[in-house]
Specification:
The chain has 140 residues and is mainly alpha-helical. It is built from 7 helices and 5 strands; from the N terminus they run H-H-E-E-H-H-H-H-E-E-E-H. The chain is globular. It starts with a helix and ends with a helix.
Length: 140
Amino acid sequence: MELIDRFLGLSWKEKSVTLYVIALFTPMFFGAWPLIGIFGILIGWIGLIEFNLFIGLPWIANVLYFIILISKKLNLKIKLILSILMVMFGLFAIGITEVPRDEGGGNYDVTVGIGFGLWVLSFIFLILEQIKLIKDKNVG
């Protein structure tokens, strides 16, 4: 219970990073073998080379996530636009229905897993952080 209270006390950005890290170590797909999130980051760039939108765009969503997190001088409205694009790109991962089984060319049928849900939720929390900062700036 203390852990939940501590999580609830975090800012939206801190919650986002926490969920993102958890998503790295949870299954992003359910199927014949568990594919955890960190492997998705390591192999997702292949989607860019193959021009596969369902693999490439979710990988770009990760790049946008880190750009938004580390950029200090980027305009808040630009960050919000990038955050919305990040979520849209991330949702393309729903279209991934099979992953390679081995070098022989076989594939496993998969569906999105809990890691995917946590990953997208981390993106949504980052959007909420951007909205909060814009509201605070307009009020103050």
